[in-house]
Amino acid sequence: MANVSTTKMSSKGQVVIPEKIRKQLNLKAGAQFVVVGEKDVVILKNIAPPSLDEFDALIADARKKGKQAGLKRSDIKDAIFKARGKKK
Q1: What is the pLDDT of residues 29-88, one digit of tens each?
Q2: How does DSSP classify residue 13?
Q3: In the beta sheet, which residues pair with residue 43?
Q4: What pTM was computed for the model?
Q5: Beta-ladder partners of 44
Q6: Residue 83 φ/ψ region, left for φ over 0, alpha for ψ in the -120 to 50 degree band, beta for the rest
């Protein structure tokens, strides 16, 4: 079962995550979160960069799908230039 604690928001909108929960989730200073709010619910979702192994797997999967879709390196470069609003 999830640990439940209460906290307060400061005048600057800051909220302290209780120590018990920080320890349980191994949260350190500088941790980043996605914040979702709807009606009276606020959700903090911890986000972290993937490990090198996970990153390698993501890249391998993206390359495989790109190849299956018939993409060429030049297509990728063109898309980057377009997204950056630059011409070749």
Answers
A1: 999 999 999 999 999 999 988 899 999 999 999 999 999 999 998 998 899 999 998 766
A2: S
A3: 36
A4: 0.55
A5: 35
A6: alpha
